[in-house]
Amino acid sequence: MVSKALGKYVHSLHQKKYRNRHGAFLVEGGKSVLELLSSDLEAEQLLATPEFAAQYQAQLPSRVPLTLATEQELTQLGTLATNTTALAIARLPAPADLPPTLPTTGLLLALDEVRDPGNLGTLLRLADWYGLPGVVLSPGCADAYAPKTVAASMGAFARVQVWERDLAAWLPTLPTDVPIYGADLAGDNVHALRLQPAGVLVMGSESHGLTPAVTEALTRRLHIPRGPAGRAESLNVAISAAILLDNFFRNQ
Amino acid sequence: MVSKALGKYVHSLHQKKYRNRHGAFLVEGGKSVLELLSSDLEAEQLLATPEFAAQYQAQLPSRVPLTLATEQELTQLGTLATNTTALAIARLPAPADLPPTLPTTGLLLALDEVRDPGNLGTLLRLADWYGLPGVVLSPGCADAYAPKTVAASMGAFARVQVWERDLAAWLPTLPTDVPIYGADLAGDNVHALRLQPAGVLVMGSESHGLTPAVTEALTRRLHIPRGPAGRAESLNVAISAAILLDNFFRNQ
After folding, report:
1. Same domain, B123 and B21
2. Is residue A98 part of a domain?
3. Residue of chain B whose Cα is closest to the Cα of A207
4. Is the domain of A125 the same as that of A236?
5. A88 part of contact set with chain B, CB < 8 Å
6. Mean pLDDT per segment of 10 residues, for chain A of length 252 residues?
7. Are residues B125 and B218 located together in one domain of the fold?
8. Which one of B32, B126, B224, B246 would you mutate to disrupt binding with A, by most A Cβ within 10 Å of its Cβ?
């Protein structure tokens, strides 16, 4: 039975304003909840069906309050079309410093005004697949802890480190030997390069590409060749990032 | 002013049943409408704001009835959160035969139960970027002419040829020298191959991968290497297809 107060709290976390006020965010669906519980993030409360609670009893930490709920209640509380298993409230991670060895020793993905939470979640999943040390978000990006981002990340929200930086201010402070890559139709053909995964790869917004100040900070522009008979004008930002990352990691 | 009958007709096309009954589908937003008008598809009716109609007068064919509408009317008629410019009703293309030279002379993308219209639209956009001769959909795929598919395809709906085939029945009828590729975690590392864009590349559903009968028809399984520190279990279907297609087209 979900109390009125708990229901109100969960609903408030649909909105960024209240996520920031409470320092918490929602994790919806059994698979994502299990990813949360096996990660370093802190779970604050769990809501689950009796069936889920019984099946995963061993994975549910006793220090986290558990409320049993019906499928209908879970679906009403959350943002998914249906949620038949579980929902968690997790603590937002405290803002962390960027390790001083980065991005010299690894490739950071930096996102410039990527506003669609589905794209952001897919990009986090990609960063998780390639084991990137983290993702830097400009202030205009979608919220990394919005329900749609969390869902699209398929568990990556619990593993990928995220920092927020004003890219136009941050990129110029990097050591001059750190390569800063960006996608550009007039850039170098990635197939002709032997890229190594260190430095920063900046991806721009879905509709406007990179902002001018960020473009200026690039040290190398990369171009994904279109097929010889290809006609599309552009690729989705997550699709472009995937192709570029495969090109960075193929020479290892 | 949009008549009640026209409004009802447009609304009915939100649903596949009525798209098939009327042989028509919706194209929403100015950019997609202009892609439609510059393609081989047949436009049946146009609805646009007076501003859009004035600005693109030269591109609006006189044989297609034009109804002027307000932004509010367009948004109410369509499925987008806002539509500030135009909406078209287009004729569904007649089912076409697969050219007999395919897939020997080019690479076809075949989709096995890809149910999410956003993923399908992104895959059509990708097929358009690489200039593939077309995409083969299993009957369980999302509708290629659903509003969400059309929107996500970013104009590719108007250029990419689509066929529907029962893949488990169709794949075994192909000549034995036609390679049939599929993604598989236990497959060959794509980075170690020199793939050529001919044959069929089959991509499976978001949650279940390839169906068993389709898996049996594969002649070569391909594996996208994960980063050395990577942890995600899998990639989104459109992301995987993008990385594989870049690997097919890099050896040209």
Report:
1. no
2. no
3. B154
4. yes
5. no
6. 94 97 97 96 97 95 95 94 93 90 90 95 97 96 97 96 96 94 89 95 84 93 94 92 97 79
7. yes
8. B246
pLDDT digits (tens, 9 = 90+) for B228-242: 999 998 999 999 999
pTM of the model: 0.94
A248 touches A197 (CB < 8 A): yes
SS3 sequence of A41-92: CCEEEEEECHHHHHHCHHHCCCCCCEEECCHHHHHHHCCCCCCCCEEEEEEC
Which CATH number fits the domain that encloses residue A204? 3.40.1280.10
The whole-angstrom separation of Cα B37 and Cα B61 is 8
Range of the domain at B148: 107-249
Q: Scanning the structure block, which residue is given the tokens 């002649």? A: B219
- Using alpha carbons only, what angle is made at residue A217 by residues A212 and A222, rounded to the nearest 5 degrees? 90
Measured between alpha carbons, how far is B240 from B137 in angstroms, rounded to an integer? 17
At which of A62, A91, A120 does a domain end? A91
| Overall domain count for chain B | 2
By C-alpha distance, the chain A residue nearest B251 is A191
Q: Are residues B240 and B118 in the same domain?
A: yes
Q: Which 3 state secondary structure label does DSSP give A148? A: helix
Boundary (domain end) residue, out of A46, A61, A91: A91
Flag whether A99 is in a domain.
Answer: no
Cα–Cα distance for residue pair A207/B154, rounded to 1 Å: 11
- Nearest by Cα to A2 from A43, A45, A47: A47
Tokens coding A230 = 């290809």
CB B191 within 8 A of CB B248: no
Are A151 and A111 contained in the same domain? yes
CB contact under 8 Å between A246 and B233, yes or no, is no
Q: Does A31 touch chain B (CB under 8 A)?
A: no
Q: What is the CATH number of the domain that holds B73?
A: 3.30.1330.30
- Of B125, B231, B246, Cβ closest to residue A243: B246
> A191 at the B interface (CB within 8 A)?
yes
Q: Tell me: do B82 and B120 sit in the same domain.
A: no
What residue of A is the nearest CA neighbor of B155?
A: A232
- Asked if residue B133 and residue B238 are part of one domain, the reply reads yes
Cα–Cα dist B156/A57, whole Å: 48
Look at residue B129 and tell me if it is in a domain: yes
Q: Which helix (H) or strand (E) holds B162?
A: strand B162-164
**Contact check, Cβ <8 Å, B226/A130:** yes
Answer whether A227 sits within 8 Å of B191, measured CB to CB.
no
Residue A96 within any structural domain of the chain: no
Q: How far is A196 from chain B (nearest CA, A)?
A: 12
